[in-house]
Write a structure and sequence with these properties.
This protein has 10 helices and no strands. Helix content is 60%, strand content 0%. The protein is globular, with a radius of gyration of 15 Å. 27% of the residues are buried. It is mostly helical.
């Protein structure tokens, strides 16, 4: 079973840095997770520049399988891209409320063979490829549909 650390590590260090750059500080504040992310990343001051500079240290922690860090960074990245999440869930036909669905919801009927590639192909021209790939892998892990990390065919 794939873990969130594996999803991050599959991006490569460069891809991880790209995904981190996409984190919106205002979205972290809106969703009231700014302070939590600041503590989890061990940053005295959380802003885009400090987060980018911390990337090598965060990468090292993910390489050591820090799943708590992976979960929190995932949340920070995903709330920064709710428009993409809504578009992906709509494309897949998954019922949701503004990009969120119940944790115990059974969406397996919507995640049929090749769902990740279909979603990637349908959205790759609208959203950053690294963030889209991250989300599709994250969705697979969170719903138990991930035996290996998805690598899109370009």
């Amino acid at each position: 079973m794939t873990k969130l650390c594996d999803v991050f590590l599959s991006q490569g260090e460069s891809g991880f840095t790209d995904v981190l750059r996409s984190v919106s500080m205002s979205r972290l504040r809106t969703f009231q997770i700014y302070e939590h992310i600041k503590v989890r990343t061990r940053l005295v001051k959380l802003n885009s520049e400090n987060l980018r500079k911390a990337a090598p240290r965060l990468w090292a922690r993910l390489s050591e399988q820090d799943e708590d860090l992976a979960a929190d960074l995932s949340q920070a990245i995903l709330v920064s891209h709710l428009d993409m999440i809504i578009a992906a869930l709509d494309l897949l036909g998954v019922p949701h409320q503004d990009g969120f669905f119940a944790k115990d919801a059974d969406i397996s009927t919507h995640l049929t063979e090749g769902w990740q590639q279909r979603a990637f192909d349908g959205l790759k021209d609208k959203y950053p490829a690294a963030v889209l790939k991250f989300y599709l892998n994250h969705l697979a892990v969170e719903t138990g549909h991930s035996s290996e990390v998805f690598v899109p065919q370009q």
